[in-house]
């Protein structure tokens, strides 16, 4: 079993875990990964914006990253996303457990099935996030001192700009709960390569139009980050490949 933590904004290392940095190249590019050592030699860490947050959402090489995880033998991924809260059910600095998404990204390399030679593949997204790992997040949240709220629908925007108030109103009407710029195409690329995927969203602000101006909340962020990482590791280690959901290719 090899598992991965795919960190977003604010998640740039795995505190207390020794790692070896490694670059993994494939036909899509090169991914920078960190391989856990000792008791964590089954964990791969990848931080999608880079450890100094130099890669913006629309420039992340999602295919190179996901293919690198696959080639390292990763079977299950837990991802984190910093987001804006659209609805009141997902307070800032508490976790939303993702169950669904609305994809408004464009112009990104969004599929591995883009070469005739690979044939035709349509990954099923009826259950984009593994129910077993998602339930485990909810079960273990309290132990890691972090409040988790189930059932979040993630709206993926292209960025790097933030949204307008009218766009947020539209996303509310469509059933979005949180908004961010990176979950797509990451989720379905992982599905195309047969990996299980679960994710949490950490609201760091109220979305546009919900306050006079966007205010990024930084209070407690260090504590929350540490708790989030421990929670992710615990979820990955207390679930197994056998019980986790892999989206089907139709
Ligand atoms: N919108 C889009 N992405 C984000 C936001 C937001 O309000 N906050 C953090 N990432």
Helical stretch tally: 5
Q: Which class of secondary structure composition applies to the elements?
A: alpha/beta
Low-confidence stretches at least 5 residues in length (pLDDT < 50)?
none
Task: Strand order, main sheet: write it out.
Answer: 5-8-7-6-9
Instruction: Describe the largest sheet.
Output: 5 strands, mixed, barrel
Intertermini distance: 26 Å
Assign a percent range to the helix content: 10-25%
Mean of the pLDDT scores? 96
CATH architecture: 3-Layer(aba) Sandwich
- CATH fold name: Rossmann fold
Per the principal axes of the C-alpha atoms, what is the gross shape? globular
How much of the sequence lies in strands comes to 25-35%
CATH class: Alpha Beta
Q: What bound compounds does this protein have?
A: hypoxanthine
Q: What is the H/E order?
A: EEEEHEEHEHEHEH
Rg estimate, integer Å:
17 Å
Count every beta strand, where a strand is a DSSP E run of 2 or more residues: 9
Give an overview in words.
The chain has one domain: 3-Layer(aba) Sandwich (Rossmann fold). α2 (131-140) packs across α5 (221-237). It has a 5-stranded mixed beta barrel with strand order 5-8-7-6-9, surrounded by 4 helices. The protein has 5 helices and 9 strands, in the order ββββαββαβαβαβα. The mean pLDDT is 96. Helix content is 23%, strand content 28%. The two termini are 26 Å apart. It is α/β, with parallel strands linked by helices and 250 residues long. Bound molecules: hypoxanthine.
